Amino acid sequence: MAAEAIPWSEEKAVFRTCPVTGLKVDLAAERLIIANAVAAVVFLLIGGIFALLLALTRWQVIHLLPPDWFYRILTAHGIDMLVAWIVFFEIAGLYFGGAVMLNARLVRPSLAWLAFALMIVGSVLINVIVLMGKADVMFTAYVPLKAHPVFYLGYILFAVGALLALGLFFATIVVAKAEKRYEGSLPLVVYGLVTAAIIAAYTLLSGALALVPAFFWSLGLLPNYDPGFYRNLFWSFGHPAQQINLAAMVAIWYALAAITTGATPLNEKLSRFAFILYILFINLGSAHHLLVDPGPGFAWKVTNTSYAMYLAVLGSMIHAFSVPAAMEVALRRQGYRRGLLEWLRKAPWREPGFSALVISIVIFGWIGGVTGVTIGTEQINMLAHNTLRVPGHFHATVVAGTTLAFMGLTYYLIPLIFRRELKLKRWATWQPYIFGLGMALVSIGFIAAGIQGVARRHWDITFAQAPFPATIPGTVHLALAVLGIGALIAVVGGAMFLIIVLVSVFTGKRQEARGLLLVVTPSSPPEPSTSAEEGEEGLRPKGTFVLVLAFLTFFAAYYLSNWWLLGRTWFVR
Ligand code: HEM
Ligand SMILES: [Cu+2]
User: Which residues surround ligand 2, an ion (CB under 5 A)?
Assistant: First the structure.
């Protein structure tokens, strides 16, 4: 028997059977999923309050915080959001994918609780030491900026906890296979999570390599720490960490498409291949953080940020076609076959999982992806480096893209995992739109200000006390007002999410979800068209094809216009 050959097989797991999905849910895994998800949401709340303070400072007519608090809150916001909120949620996702989706038991729940405790202690330590004013170094903590040792210790504890959780995820999948808990190959969503976890493993190790010496350096035990060395290793943590988010987000895209429209991938092999492209190539993109560093040479920079990086971009392009195409085919099957886009018009727009998915894809691709590839190009980076274009890019990817996808999925986890009735359903219908609109404005405001040269991470964008006079065009204020107004809208959308989740979890009726997974039950679903094309021809994803062409045109226009802008900075006749 395979099961006996496995260490830990003596552990007794207790399962319940989910009446909706028929999955066997390990109760220990369920409790851990809940704990990690709740921690994630709490850090989203804290980071969100900080976001509001920052945005009201960036909105130049308000300019709320004094300089020291601006940098302090910026440090805490970056860590609470990018590290705590995202990683806690991802760990919840890994336990869900590794155990629940495979009918398997989570190995060693006690170690998983240890991992959770390490991550909590780490993130609390960081917040405390930052708010005490002893670590105003931003989340990147570039050497030779020096923080209090507790700051690095907090980072390291968090990373060790996350590594432990990853190890348990891999072990759970191996044991599930050996115990024959699932048949055939891994489901695509779990496959995507495995991709995320593989990237996470080397990411976290690089993080440890960067931060452990920094810890000793700040204790005074290491006399010197080379900034170039630190920056290289930090970014082999900091950049791939975003690709974990990317892989997890794409896995959730496939899940949301399946939940809300019944979509199945058109070509699963291709989708799997696209995930492999991430593993192989995406880490090379880290070099885009070092484009102005004196150490690495030009050829190294260009090779890594261009040629190799584009293979990872190809992965994203494949997913960005596959997910909408799968939805289009599913909706055409339901009868919406007229013209190119009837399926899109009649799609379940009031279902928050669907709207979150579409808004996530659109802002991630059209704003985040396009600007990322553009500013990651060596030459154009010389214009964009350390301007507000950079936070404009990553608020489109990691906030409107990843965060919104995570929010969308949460609405379905509440009945399934928390086993509570989802409350405030009408709010849920609106929430993705409000958050998405706000974040679109935030990103566009950032980018528009950045294109006009406004620095990021800088309290005084007017450079009032600088020895050289700096002029910023008046239109910058318009861009920053768009940012500020967008932030207010996004904060309302974020608060709605938090209220829906907390009200449901703490006051929702305890219930076994019965069949009903969706948030909105249409009273009368729209009539499928009758006079439409029949047969296979009517099922082709023609609409998605046209949308993708429109995207590529926009991409080319934005990319080329940046070369044009670059050309204008050279006054050579
Ligand atoms: C309501 C939502 C949000 C708003 C309004 C917001 C706003 C801001 C602002 C104004 C800055 C400062 C930019 C600068 O002056 O350099 C900033 C930085 C940042 N934000 Fe957000 N943010 C939001 C949500 C998020 C989320 C959800 C994440 C991550 C998942 C995130 C990650 C970051 C990071 C990593 C930085 C850079 C920190 C640094 O430069 O060290 N933000 N954000
Ligand atoms: Cu990066």
Answer: 239
Domain layout of the chain by residue ranges: 23-183, 351-461+472-516+536-554
Burial group, residue 322, by CB count within 10 angstroms (0-12, 13-18, 19+): buried
How many Cβ atoms from other residues are within 10 Å of residue 359's Cβ? 22
Write the class of the CATH domain 351-461+472-516+536-554.
mainly alpha
Q: pLDDT (tens digit, 9 = 90+) per residue, 364-373?
A: 999 999 999 8
The HSE-up count of residue 368 (CA atoms within 13 Å, CB side) is 24
Cα-to-centroid distance, 240 and ligand 2 (Å): 7
Contacts by 554-562 with C-beta closer than 8 Å and gap 24+?
A: 554/366, 554/370, 555/369, 555/370, 555/373, 558/370, 558/371, 558/374, 559/370, 559/373, 559/374, 559/377, 562/374, 562/380, 562/383
Q: Is the Cβ atom of 196 under 6 angstroms away from ligand 1?
A: no
Name which residue sits closest to atom 43 of ligand 1, judged by CA: 51
Percent of the chain with pLDDT over 90: 67
Give just the sign of the alpha carbon dihedral 72, 73, 74, 79.
positive
CA gap 347, 437 in Å, rounded? 19
Q: Would the pTM of this model clear 0.85, i.e. be above it?
A: yes
Rounded to 10 degrees, the C-alpha dihedral 66/71/75/76 comes to -10
Tens of pLDDT, residue by residue over 145-188, are 999 999 999 999 999 999 999 999 999 999 999 988 888 888 88
